[in-house]
Specification:
mainly alpha, two-stranded antiparallel ribbon, 3 helices
Length: 77
């Protein structure tokens, strides 16, 4: 498995996780959609402020030396 594929799979896993926002559980992919919509409304003048600090992602980090080693090998081959 390439490093790029692993990164994409990890990001897809993140997008499929749920988070509590607006008193309900929603997917992170939907949160990103709402934030992008809010930003577009801000850019065209429909909204004065954009809120990007909520909800907060509280993920766990798995320290694994394999991925940095693979990145190093692919860069310096």
């Amino acid at each position: 498995m390439t490093v790029a594929r692993k990164v994409i799979e990890e990001f897809q896993t993140l997008l499929n996780k749920k988070v509590k926002s607006q008193n309900r559980n929603i997917l992170w992919s939907y949160v990103f959609l709402l934030k992008a919509k809010g930003l577009s409304h801000h850019l065209v003048g429909k909204r004065k402020a954009v809120e990007f600090s909520k909800p907060v992602y509280m993920g766990e980090r798995h320290v694994n030396d394999l991925i940095p080693q693979q990145i190093h090998l692919e860069i310096f081959q």
